[in-house]
Amino acid sequence: MGLANWENHYDIPENMSWYYFYPNSSKALREIIEKEDINRFHAVLIEDGQYSRDLFSYVKCFEPYTLFYNQNLQINDREVVDFLKKRCAQAIDFLSPQQLINDLSKSLFGGGYGDKLFPPTIQVNPNFTGAISYQGLDYVSLEGDFGQDFP
């Protein structure tokens, strides 16, 4: 959601479907959700926080940690700040849009190899002696000695 459609300026990976919404376009957002039968968006990029109110009615379409907003935004609207906090929105660098798109396509959009796993449901073998770090609902980081096959 922003003032420019990145699809017109950057390459969108094949594993992503790109939907652009201009500010104050909640009606267009509703129409796309209904037309495309969208239950969830895998990622939402917010270029300008003042337009985040457009998303309030569609909170069920966004899983926590999948809203991303420009880290340089100054958001003074208390309701918008609360909304972003409740959805665990992440402030990220928008300076390199192509790199951002590529990174999101690798981390949030499956490559078709199998099931999507949710980190909170993953159980690590109790005999694992390395470090385990849960990064919200995004991923689990394991550090340890995995032998020669997995350096």
TrEMBL record:
One of the Pfam families matching this protein, by short name: Asp2
Organism expressing this protein natively: Streptococcus pneumoniae
UniProt lineage: Bacteria, Bacillati, Bacillota, Bacilli, Lactobacillales
Name listed for the protein in its UniProt record: Accessory Sec system protein Asp2
UniProt GO BP: protein transport
